[in-house]
Amino acid sequence: MMEVKTVSRGNSLALSLPKDNRFKKGQRWLLIPSTDGESFTLVPRMENPYLKTKGSKPMTEEWSDVNWSEVE
């Protein structure tokens, strides 16, 4: 278990995380509330794997000879 505390940052509060290899400056995290409304889960924010990457090719139709308007 890890203990963190809230600290003032301008007009807001921030979570103070320990400085170690698990947390890096500039990382983005999601704070997900639980159903009880009292606790949270902290998870790293992932990049969207479905965004187009540079140099990617569009998917082509596998069956280019099929007339899809005839398919029910």
Structural commentary:
Helices cover 0% and strands 28% of the residues. The chain is mainly β and 72 residues long. The radius of gyration is 23 Å and the shape is elongated. The termini are far apart.
Furnish the topology, listing elements before pairings.
Layout: E1 5-9, E2 12-16, E3 29-33, E4 40-44
Antiparallel strand pairs: 1-2, 3-4
**How much strand content do the residues show?**
25-35%
Give the number of DSSP strands. 4
How many H/I helical runs? 0
Question: Roughly how much helix do the residues carry, as a percent range?
Answer: under 10%
Task: Please provide the ordered H/E string of secondary-structure elements.
Answer: EEEE
| Major beta sheet summary | 2 strands, antiparallel
Q: Widest sheet: strand order?
A: 1-2
Q: How does the helix and strand content classify structurally?
A: mainly beta
Shape descriptor: elongated
As a whole number of angstroms, the C-alpha radius of gyration is 23 Å
Mean pLDDT: 83
Distance between termini?
A: 56 Å
What are the low-pLDDT stretches, counting only 5+ consecutive residues below 50? none
Quaternary structure: single chain
